Amino acid sequence: MVGVEYSGLYPSYEFYDLGLGSTMVNLTEYFRGASVSLESFSRDLNDLIIHVSGANRAPSFYQYDRRTRSLERIALEYDGITDENVMPTVEVTYPARDGEKIPGVLTYPRGWNFDRRLPTLIMPHGGPEAHDSVRFDWMAQFFASRGYLILQPSFRGLDGFGAKHKLAGRGEWGRGVMQHDVTDGLNAMIKTGWADADRVCIVGASYGGYAALAGGAFTPEKYKCIAAVAPVTDLVKMTFDERRDSGSDSWVVTYWKLLIGDPRSEKERLRSISPSQFADNFTAPVLLIHGKDDTVVPISQSSVMARALKRADKPVEFVRQNNGDYWLSTSETRLETLSALSTFIDTHLGGSKAAGTP
Predict the structure, then answer these.
(1) pLDDT value at position 353?
(2) CA 334 to chain centroid
(3) Closest Cα to residue 318, out of 287, 343, 285?
(4) Residue 340 backbone phi and psi in degrees, to 5
(5) 283-300 mean pLDDT
C-alpha cells in the first residue's frame, strides 16, 4: 500500500511518500480543471503513468519521470479523438431547494461563452450509488458536439461525496430529494441564463432512466422529451423479481430494502414512486431503449412502461436491441443507441442547427 485515492468530481490522493504526494499535486495543477489519475508506477515510485481527462483535453495516458521531471503523452484513450475534438467539461455547484449545495458536471459546445441559452439535456447518473466526474463521457460529448448543454447532477444518494450525501438518498427515490436535486439542477441552469427552458430533455440509463421517467411522471411541465435506456419503471415488480431470482436472504434483496423499502410492507409507497403507475401524467414523448440480453435490469421493465404509456394514449417509441446488454458493451449497440437518441432529441428540441452549434 502506497496511499489512498479519494473519489468525487476529481480524484485526489494521500501518499506515505510525501514526495510522491507533492508530485501528484503539481501534476494536477499542471492539468488544471482536468481529472488526473495515477494508473501505475515503478517499484521505486520514480516512473509514473497517469491518466488525464476532462476540461478540454482528450483522455490520454502520460508517462512522468520524477527524476528528470519530464512528461510525455504516450497514448490517446480513444484512437482519433484529439484535444480539438473534445467539448469542454467543468465542475458546477448549484443550490437545492433545502439549501444543500449539489455538485455536478457541465459539458458544453466549443465556442460557447455562457452568453446565450442552449437547448439542454439533464443526464442523471445510473447506479444509483455511483457518480459522474469531470472526465470524457462519450454520451455527453456526443450531444455537446451537436450544440447541447449537458448537466450531470450529483444528486444525493450517490457515492463519492461522503457518507452524509450518500445516505441522504435512502428512501428518497421519485418524489424525494434524489429527484428534487435533479429538478433543482435544471432550475439552476435556467436561472443562470444557460439553459433554454423551452428546449429541455431528460436522458438517463438504469437508475438514470428511472429518474428520467420520474421527471416525466412527477414534473412533466419541465421536459419536452424523455429518453430512458434500460430503466427501472416498476419498483414493486423489480424487488419481487430480485427476490425470486436471488432468494429472499440474498444481499441484493437486503440492499434494495435499504435503498427504497420493503415491497411487502411498503407496497403502496413503492407504487407511488413507480413511473409506470403514472403514465397519465406524461405530457412529453418518451423513448425507451433496452437490450434483450440485459441481465441487470430485465427488458420487461421497459415493456411495462411502454404498455402503460400506450394504454394512456401517450407518444412512446420502444427500441429493443437484439444483442444489447446492460452496459452497451459493443460499438454496435452504442452507435444504435446514439442514433436513436439523436434522432429523437433533435426532433423534439430543434436539432443542432437550432442549438446554434458554433
Answers:
(1) 52
(2) 15
(3) 287
(4) -65, -45
(5) 96
